[in-house]
């Protein structure tokens, strides 16, 4: 079986990337291989995780005042060179343009809430959990979805609920959502989408 080539876009610590790497090692991701980890931040610890696991890395920074299009063209060039057939946004903190999305193979994203709650422009990272606590929801979770031109608006692939507990802080809630939902959901969704891509390839 020819493995589906996966590029992972990151901006931060990369615990979701680690979950993907671990899933590859344990055989939960069977039919995919990681060909690139690309970060828009040179200091992202996710890059270290990739290097430690022999995955090629690239850094593309958006310079101050630079048009988004220039940044996206540079990202696109890296993705094309890697041969990626599936793009995974794993803590990538930038909104991508419609033109970029249309020029790419399928893109999926992990978001730390139950979409359509606490999502869209301005909701990312810890802010999502701050908003959930502020609102007072008793259940939150994570969502993996296809990326389209609407921020966090693409078709949902998988979701998992997580309880909010008395005394939670944004940090404790973020950690529980990662442990109980994100790190399980993302590898599962990747394997599911690879199945769809490979089915289409064989038709
Ligand atoms: C994760 O919680 C991810 O769901 C979130 O950022 C964190 C990245 O952590 N993504 C978003 O908020 C995207 N809108 P990680 O770098 O340790 O994987």
Provide an overview of this structure.
- The protein is an alpha/beta fold and 203 residues long.
- The protein is 41% helix and 21% strand.
- It has six helices and seven strands.
- It has helices at 15-26, 45-52, 68-82, 98-103, 126-135, 170-202, and strands spanning 4-10, 32-39, 57-59, 86-89, 107-111, 139-146, 156-163.
- A seven-stranded mixed sheet has the order 3-2-1-4-5-6-7, sandwiched between helices.
- Helix 2 links the parallel strand 2 (32-39) and strand 3 (57-59).
- The longest helix is centred in the C-terminal third of the chain and has 33 residues, at 170-202.
- The chain is globular, with a radius of gyration of 16 Å.
- The two termini are 15 Å apart.
- The mean pLDDT is 97.
Class by alpha and beta content: alpha/beta
Gyration radius, to the nearest Å?
16 Å
How many beta-strand runs? Answer: 7
Helix content: 40-55%
Overall mean pLDDT stands at 97
**In what range is the share of β-strand residues?**
15-25%
* String of helices and strands: EHEHEHEHEHEEH
Strand numbers in spatial order across the main sheet: 3-2-1-4-5-6-7
Bound molecules: glycinamide ribonucleotide
Question: Low-confidence parts, pLDDT < 50 over ≥5 residues?
Answer: none
What coarse outline follows from CA principal-axis ratios? Answer: globular
Q: How would a crystallographer describe the biggest sheet?
A: 7 strands, mixed
Distance between the termini: 15 Å
Number of helices: 6
Provide key terms for this protein.
203 residues, alpha/beta, 7-stranded mixed beta sheet, 41% helix, 21% strand, globular, binds glycinamide ribonucleotide
């Amino acid at each position: 079986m020819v493995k589906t080539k996966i590029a992972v876009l990151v901006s931060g610590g990369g615990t979701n990337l680690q979950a993907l790497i671990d899933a590859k090692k344990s055989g939960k991701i069977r039919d995919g291989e990681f060909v690139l980890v690309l970060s828009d931040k040179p200091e992202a610890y996710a890059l270290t995780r990739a290097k430690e696991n022999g995955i090629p890395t690239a850094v593309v920074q958006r310079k101050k005042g630079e048009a988004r299009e220039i940044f996206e063209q540079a990202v696109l060039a890296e993705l094309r060179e890697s041969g990626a057939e599936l793009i995974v946004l794993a803590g990538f903190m930038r909104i991508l343009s419609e033109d970029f999305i249309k020029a790419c193979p399928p893109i999926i994203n992990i978001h730390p809430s139950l979409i359509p709650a606490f999502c869209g422009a301005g909701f990312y990272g810890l802010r999502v959990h701050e908003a959930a606590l502020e609102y007072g929801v008793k259940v939150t979770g994570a969502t993996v979805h296809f990326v389209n031109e609407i921020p966090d608006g693409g078709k949902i692939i998988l979701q998992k609920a997580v309880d909010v507990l008395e005394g939670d802080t944004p940090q404790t809630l973020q950690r529980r959502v990662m442990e109980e939902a994100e790190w399980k959901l993302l590898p599962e969704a990747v394997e599911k989408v690879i199945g769809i891509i490979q089915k289409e390839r064989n038709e």
